[in-house]
Amino acid sequence: MDYEPVIGLEVHVQLKTASKMFCGCTTEFGGPPNSHTCPVCLGFPGVLPVLNKRALFSAIRAALAVDCKVSKEVKFHRKNYFYPDLPKDYQISQYDEPLSENGKIDVLADGKTRTIRVKRVHMEEDAGKLIHEEGENSSLVDFNRSGMPLLEIVSEPDINSPEEAYQYLTKLKLLLRYLDVSDCDMEKGSLRCDANISIRKKGDTGLGTKAEVKNMNSFKGVKSALEYEIERQVKCAEAGERIVMETRLWDPARCVTVSMRSKEEAHDYRYFPEPDLVPFALDPSVVESERKGLPELPEAKKARFIGTFGLPEYDADVLVQEKDNADYFEACLEYYDKPKIISNWLMGDVAAFLNSKGIPITELKMRPQGLAGLLREIDSGKISGKMAKDIVLEMCESGKDAAAIISEKGLSQISDTSELEKFADQAIAENAKTVEDFMKGKDSALMFLVGQVMKKTRGKANPAMVNEVLRKRLAAKK
Amino acid sequence: MENLYTLTAHELLGLLDKRSVRPEDIIESVCSRAAAVDGKVKGYVNIDKAGALSSVPGAPSGKLRGIPVAVKDNICVEGELTTCASKILRGFRPPYNATVIEKLKAEGAVVLGRANMDEFAFGSSCENSAYFPTLNPWDTSRIPGGSSGGSAAVVAADEAVMALGSDTGGSIRQPAALCGVVGMKPTYGRVSRYGLIAFASSLDQIGPLTKDVRDAALLLGAIAGYDEKDSTSVNLPVPDYLQCLTGDVKGMKIGIPKEYFVDGMDKEVDAAVREAVALLKAKGAQVSEVSLPHTEYAVAVYYILATAEASSNLARFDGVQYGHRCENPGNMLDMYERTRGEGFGAEAKRRIILGTYVLSSGYYDAYYLKAQKVRTLIKNDFDKVFGAGFDCILTPTSPTPAFKVGERSSDPLSMYLSDIFTISVNLAGVPAISLPCGFTKSGLPIGMQLIGDFFEEGKLFRAAHAYESHTDWHKRSPKL
C-alpha cells in the first residue's frame, strides 16, 4: 500500500535585538553563565515585564514577509509549567490572539513549486539553559538566554516530503536573514525546529495520528529525521500496529528517533491573559510603515536580476541566496557594466576564496570597485584572464587594487608588437621543423609556436597578439 | 512636649521644619514605643532602629523629609529581608528596591521596620502569617484585620507614624477599619507595582495606612505616579492631594448603594455608618440611594480571578534560585513538591489549588472566562453611578468590627466574607478610602468606606477630610 507523509513545522527563531524581550539585558551570545541577567529575566519576586518595542517591530516585519495578516491588538498570555530553566515557572507567550495569522511560503522542491501555508507567527520569551555535569547529582542553570525574544512560526500540515521541509526551512531562513531580524543559525540555537508528522494512505484527506519530533540541530538533520520517521511509521502501519501520539527525540549519532513521552501525560499549560502587560491596539500606521520599510525580498530581487541585468536564472538564484552577495554584485555594477562577467567571478574565484576562508563577503578585503578595476584591466588587454585569476586572489587577501599588483609584480601583458616580433622571430628560427609543417598547411603547428613565445615571455604575452604576429611573420616567409 | 510617637506625619513635619526635633528623635521615640507595646501587638516582623538611624538623610528634603515609614513585608527593599510572611521566602533579600521605596527615599522618608501580614496577602485577619498572628491594639484577643494587619496595627498603636500596605481585595481598607486608622486603595495603575511581590497582578495596589486623612494624602502624593517599569501604571499627572483638603463637602453628590446594607450586618456598624451619612448630609452633601446590582457576585468572581493569578504568580517559588529549598532533594519533582509543601502555609496552598483548578483545561471557560465577564459587569455598575454625576459612594468598610482570634480561621468562607464590601472596588479598579466613623459599645473601631471614580482620589480625600474635621474618632488611641 502507498502512504504519504503529512508534515507541519514549528520553527523558533531568536530575534536580533540589542536587549531582551522584557528587560534591558544584552542579547549577546556567549558570556560567562548568568552574566547577562537582571532581576526581571531571573524572575525575581516583584519584578514586572516591559515589552521591547524593537522586538515587536522585528516580529511584524517577519510576519509581513511571510504574507501573514497582522493582528489589530497585541496581547500576551502566560503559559504555565514548572521547569528549572524557566525562572517564573511560566513563559510569556501569545495564545488565542497571536501577532499574525494566515500567511504562506512558496517552496520549490522535487521540481515543482508548492505553497505551504503559515498558520501563525507569534512572539514569546526564551528560557534559560540547564547544564548537566557528567557524574554530578545536580544540574546548573544558565539564565543568559532567559527572556531572549523569540518568534514562533507555525506551518499548516501542508508539507509532503522531507525535501519540502528542507526547502521550507531554507526559504524561511533566507527571508528572515533578508529582513535582518535573525541570524537563523541552527548550530548556535538562534533557529530551532520541531516537526509534527503523520502518514496516511495516498488519496485520503484525513490526518493520521501524529508524532512530534524534536532535537534536530541542522536542516539536514530535519530532513534525515523526517525520512527516518516516515519509514518507521509506514513499517508500523504495515505491521498493523497502532501509531501512538507521542514526542520523539532525534538521535543524530544513531540516526533514529526515540520516544520521549506520550501525549497522554501532556502538560495542561493553563494559559490565561498576562495581567502584567496590558493588551494594546496596534496602530495600523505602524504596520504600514514596517511594510514600506521591508527590503526587496529574494524572489523579487532574483526576478530583477534576470529581467534588468539579463542574468541566467541559475546565476540570479545563487546570488540572491545571501543578501550581502547580491548587494556586492549590484555595487560592482556601479563601476563595471557587464553583469554576467561579474557574476562569473563572484560565483567562481571569489566564492572559492570565501569558502576556503569561511568568511562572509562583507569581510572580503577586495571591495566592489576593486573587482571592477580588475575586470577593466582584462578588457583593456593589459592582463590575461589567467593572470587575473592570480591577481584576484591577492586582491582578496590584501585588498590592494589590481593596477598596483600588476605594476608591483611586473605582471602586465606584453602587447607591444615590436617586442613580440622579436620573440616570434626567435621561435621561428629555433623550430624549423614546425615552421615547415605549418607551411605544408598543418595549422595546429602554429599553436606550438604560440606556446614557445608564451614560454619565452613567461606567460606575459597577449596570446591573441602572439597568434597574429606569428601569422604575419610566417606569411612574410612564404 | 507630647510624645513624638503620638503625632501624625504632618504634625512632625511642622516640628522638623522648625528644627525643634530631628528625624533621629522621631525614630527613637517610635522605636521605644514599639519596644514597649509590640510584645502585645506583634505588628512588626522586623524593626531595625540602627538601620533606620543610619539611613536618615543628612539634610532631609522632600514631602516626607525625615519621616519614618513602616513597610508591609511584601514590598521589596534592597538588601533587607522581604518574606511576605512566608517560610518559602525565608532569608530572601531582594537585590533591588520597589519603585515606591525609591520614591519614599527620594522624598526624604526612612524605612523603619517590616510589618506583619497574612502570608502572601492571603487573608483578612493576619492569622496566616508564618511568623505569628498580629493582634488588634484595641483588644488583643481580636484580630487586626488583614492582610495588611501589621501595617494597620503599628499605626493604630503609635508604633509607626505611617505605613505602606497593599490591597488586593480590601487588604488595606479592612484592617484600617478594624484598627481605627485611615487606609486608601488607589486607582489601579496610580501607584507602581514594581517591587510589590504579586498576589493578583490585575488587582494589587500599594497604598497608605495613616493616623488621619491628611497623612494619607501626603503619603499617596509621595508614592503615586507613572513608572516605566510597570506597564500597568498609568501616565497621568499626580494632583496635589493636600490642596483637596478643603474641609468642605457642600454640593458633593454621595451615593449610598442599597446592596451594601445587608441582613446579618452588625447593628452597631450599620448605625455608625448611617450616622456618618447624616452628618455629611448636614454639612451640605447631596446624598441619595444608588444601586450596584452585581455586588452579590463580587466575592465569587474575586476568588476565581485572584486565585488564578496567584497560582501563576507563586509558581516561581520553586526552590531553584531563592528562598526555601527542601533538604536533599532526590530529583526535580521531589524538590518542587517538598519545597512548596514545606514552604507554603495552608491558605496559600488552598488558593494555589483553587487557582490551578479554575485555569485547567475544561474548566477555564466555566470559571475564569465567566468571572472575567462578570468583572466587567461589576465595573459597569460603578461606571453608571459615576456617570450619573456622583462624586463618591459611601459604604461600611467591613460588615463587622474586629472578630476574635481563631473565630473564623477554620471556616475559609466566613473569612472570605469579611471582604464583601471591599472586593468590588478592586475588581472595578476604582479608588476607595476607609476612615474611622465610630466605635462599638465595647470600644472596637468602626470604619466607613468612600469609593471614587477612576483617578478621583482627590475627591475621596476631600470628603473624608471634611467628615474627619467634624469628628474626633481618629484622635482616640487604644490603651496598651
What does this structure look like?
The complex is a heterodimer of chains A (478) and B (480). In chain A, 40% of the residues lie in helices and 20% in strands. Chain A is α+β, with helices and mostly antiparallel strands and 478 residues long. Chain A is elongated, with a radius of gyration of 31 Å. The model of chain A has no long low-confidence stretch (mean pLDDT 90). With 480 residues, chain B is of the alpha/beta class. Chain B has a domain of 240 residues: Amidase signature (AS) domain (Amidase signature (AS) enzymes), CATH 3.90.1300.10. Helices cover 36% and strands 13% of the residues of chain B. Chain B is built from 15 helices and eleven strands. In chain B, strand 10 and strand 11 form a beta hairpin. The longest helix of chain B has 23 residues. Chain B is globular and about 70 Å long. The interface between A and B is large, with 28 and 43 residues.
Briefly summarize what is shown:
The complex is a heterodimer of chains A (478) and B (480). By secondary structure, chain A is an alpha+beta fold.
Largest beta sheet of chain A: what is the strand line-up? 2-6-7-10-1-11-12-13-14
SS summary, helix count of chain A = 15
Greatest interface and its participating residue counts: A-B, 28 and 43 residues
- The counted number of beta strands of chain B is 11
Strand content of chain A: 15-25%
Instruction: Round the Cα radius of gyration of chain B to an integer and report it.
Output: 21 Å
Rg value of chain A: 31 Å
Number of DSSP E strands of chain A: 16
The helix/strand class of chain A is alpha+beta
Query: What percent of the residues of chain B sit in helical stretches (DSSP H or I)?
Result: 25-40%
Number of domains of chain A: 3
